[in-house]
Design a protein that fits this description.
single chain, about 70 residues, alpha+beta, 3 strands
Length: about 70
């Protein structure tokens, strides 16, 4: 995960977060405050069904959501 700016503070929150494999340039980005439109479809690819299970299993810590 790559966060820009890397040292977020309350006055300068993280504006972008990139996800990808360790040691590889991030290939999936979330941008704070950006809009896509009224509809959005998101598809991800994985190598194994185990990866799908890991992604979809319940988390012990809730994922933060901005409304």
């Amino acid at each position: 995960m790559l966060q820009i700016p890397p040292n977020a503070t309350p006055n300068q929150p993280t504006a972008m977060t990139g996800f990808g494999l360790a040691g590889v340039k991030p290939y999936f980005w979330l941008i704070d405050g950006g809009t896509v439109g009224t509809n959005m479809h998101l598809a991800l690819t994985v190598d194994t069904r185990e990866d799908v299970a890991t992604f979809t299993r319940p988390r012990s810590t809730p994922v933060p959501r901005h409304c």
